[in-house]
From TrEMBL:
Residues 175-340 form the GTP cyclohydrolase II domain. One of its GO terms (cellular component) is cytosol. This is GTP cyclohydrolase-2. Its EC number is 3.5.4.25. GO terms for molecular function: GTP binding; GTP cyclohydrolase II activity; zinc ion binding. Keywords: GTP-binding, Hydrolase, Metal-binding, Nucleotide-binding, Riboflavin biosynthesis, Zinc. Pathway: Cofactor biosynthesis; riboflavin biosynthesis; 5-amino-6-(D-ribitylamino)uracil from GTP: step 1/4. It comes from Ruegeria intermedia. It catalyses: GTP + 4 H2O = 2,5-diamino-6-hydroxy-4-(5-phosphoribosylamino)-pyrimidine + formate + 2 phosphate + 3 H(+). Pfam families: GTP_cyclohydro2. Binds 1 zinc ion per subunit.
Length: 364
């Protein structure tokens, strides 16, 4: 029945629920389940009602966050921190959010669960991440997941149906393209691409009319509100964006993909949390880890999807990031040349650029 939402649509609905502070129900293959809510958006009444369900609630966090909290991660990539009976919402939020780690360290040791299944906790964390929230979820078991969801009107996700889709990217479709005269070239054209799962749109700016049979000068630019628009001195994004467009304008053609993966895929709120940690002395990579994220949560396969749908198969890529080149090659776009982009070094971003070179393999 096509009027019933499919699993991709249910996952999108679950992300929206978590962003609003509404719990979702996750159901394992045997029908048992959990109620899960994002730690960041959960309110006090809902925390209290989750506790009222009877079973032991936990906060599921990534092993990165667990490492910072010195909590044992028995489950490899995640840990289930037991919520003590006297802990309040502020305690739950402090497990999720590192802002006060230094000022008001958590009193340990944190107890973590060791036995039992973790499939559903993993889904809860993945949903919180893709909802651009802190990767932490309050999780409480319930006996019959489907019945609980139906009686409470909550979004219900079956593990077996969801698992194959969590690492997928949604197919992108071009919605519209129109002429966009720009300072660097009057022959600009902006294409808007929309995924099927209600996620972020991404853009392609085509300069001139590049020959599809030859390698095109291309840039995969990741959104950086602070650098691209505000003139932030903490990174080199703004000068890189304008430098890439200027070079395309000078050559007469090129294609710039503007991928809405703000903050290397963690979203602007989390990037600002990372900046707050950077002001406490952590570097850009350490800050991501303390928040519970990997160094880089972006998905560059989006870039090859868009290039292919525009008819390109090979590029001269403007980048200092070898991971982008490797990903292009792996996903069927030939990189015939790396064109270096060295612009915008400032006193504020020198340390950031050095960290990227030392820890993320960026070429200087
Ligand atoms: N999480 C996080 N993201 C950041 C930080 N500084 C910049 N960003 C984001 O990083 C992305 C840009 O990535 P960069 O690592 O500068 O460059 P790159 O795209 O990997 O490589 P180039 O092609 O050489 O520019 C943008 O999405 C920025 O918003 C930071 O300190 N923390
Ligand atoms: Zn930036």
């Amino acid at each position: 029945m096509s009027l019933i939402p499919d699993i991709t649509e249910l996952l999108a609905r679950a992300r929206a629920d978590l962003r609003m502070g509404v719990p979702v129900v996750l159901v394992d293959d045997g029908g048992g389940g959990v109620v899960a809510a994002a730690a960041e958006t959960l309110g006090p009444q809902r925390l209290s009602d989750l506790r009222g369900l009877g079973d032991q609630p936990v906060v599921a966090i990534t092993n990165r966050r667990a490492e910072t909290l010195k909590a044992r991660a028995y489950d490899g990539d995640l840990a289930r921190v037991v919520i003590p009976a006297d802990a309040d919402l502020a305690w739950v939020q402090a497990v999720a959010d590192p802002s006060d780690d230094l000022d008001a360290p958590m009193k340990g040791p944190l107890m973590t669960q060791r036995s039992g299944h973790t499939n559903l906790h993993r889904i809860a964390i993945a949903l919180a991440k893709t909802a651009r929230l802190l990767p932490a979820a309050v999780v409480v078991p319930v006996e019959d997941g489907h019945a609980f969801a139906a009686s409470h009107g909550l979004t219900c996700i079956d593990h077996a149906r969801a698992a194959p889709h969590l690492a997928d990217r949604s197919p992108l479709h071009e919605v519209v393209a129109a002429r966009l005269p720009m300072e660097v070239s009057e022959a600009g054209r902006l294409h808007v691409f929309r995924p099927e799962d209600g996620g972020e749109e991404h853009y392609a700016i085509e300069i001139g009319r590049p020959d599809r049979s030859k390698p095109v000068l291309a840039r995969l630019h990741s959104a950086c509100f602070t650098g691209d628009l505000m003139g932030s001195l903490k990174c080199d994004c703004g000068p890189q964006l304008r430098g890439a467009l200027a070079q395309m304008g000078a050559e007469g053609h090129g294609v710039l993909l503007y991928l809405n993966q703000e903050g290397r895929g963690i979203g602007l709120a989390n990037k600002m949390r990372a900046y707050f940690l950077q002001d406490q002395g952590f570097d850009t990579v350490e800050a991501n880890h303390r928040l519970g994220f990997e160094d880089d949560e972006r998905d560059f396969r989006l870039g090859s999807d868009i290039l292919k749908s525009l008819g390109f198969s090979s590029v001269r890529l403007l980048t200092n990031n070898p991971a982008k080149i490797a990903m292009m090659e792996r996903t069927g776009i030939a990189v015939t040349e790396r064109v270096p982009l060295k612009v915008g070094e400032t006193a504020h971003n020198r340390g950031y650029l050095a960290t990227k070179a030392a820890k993320s393999g960026h070429l200087l």
